[in-house]
Amino acid sequence: MPAEFAAENAHLLVVDDDARLRALLQRFLAEQGFRVTAAADAAAARAALSAMAFDLLVLDVMMPGETGLELVESLRRGGKDVPVLMLTARGGPDDRVAGFEMGADDYLAKPFDPRELALRIRTILRRAAPPMPALLPQAPVQLGMRWFDAERSELRGPDGTIRLTGGEAALLAALARRAGEVLSREEIAAALGTPEAGERAVDVQVTRLRRKIEPDPREPRFLHTVRHRGYVLRPGP
């Protein structure tokens, strides 16, 4: 599906225990052309997820009962790779890193401009959408017994497809496009569409990706740290 179609027709699930904010977001995002379903807590979100397919979750962190962080971590453990944008009144670097560690794709601190929220949503959806065919498609990249197809955002191994979150796929695609070349953390953050996330957030995404592509994440064979410079992907058998 073309990215423009995906962004304008996406079905969003907005999860927030603040009824007023939830209603405002539902109305604003509907005006932006999205289909929007709302849920007041994690339990209602789980019920909605079991009944419908969503293109993206807008998820509040601090909710009574199961928190947003706990919900996204549970979804990732269960193999659900739906993109997640987290909302929180606590927007410090440690809070953003915690969100990325749990598997979030982006993080927005309250209070926020609704226009920025819509922009972030479209950025994530474009990143997650299947790419348009290129005149010169990029060849799959070998990572030991696994192959990454940047055109399909798929990582495959002897046992089938390895699930990647949108952020992990975007990170691996950015590194694969410039394999053998050192990318700074700033370049990586820009490629992920989260330039404000900070260096630690990039490090967290790299750590998560290593768990998917490295035989031993503690001794990386493919995704290397270059001290004081950034990261480099060195494909190979």
TrEMBL record:
Residue numbers carrying 4-aspartylphosphate: 60
UniProt xrefs under Pfam families: Response_reg, Trans_reg_C
GO BP, one annotated term: regulation of DNA-templated transcription
The protein's name: Response regulator
Known DNA-binding region: 138-235
GO MF annotation, one: phosphorelay response regulator activity
Span of domain OmpR/PhoB-type: 138-235
Keywords: DNA-binding, Phosphoprotein, Transcription, Transcription regulation, Two-component regulatory system
The keyword Cell cycle belongs to this UniProt entry's keyword annotation: no
Native source species: Roseicella aerolata
SMART domains in UniProt: REC, Trans_reg_C
GO CC terms in record: cytosol; protein-DNA complex
Xref: PANTHER family: DNA-BINDING DUAL TRANSCRIPTIONAL REGULATOR OMPR (PTHR48111:SF4), REGULATOR OF RPOS (PTHR48111)
Domain Response regulatory: 11-125
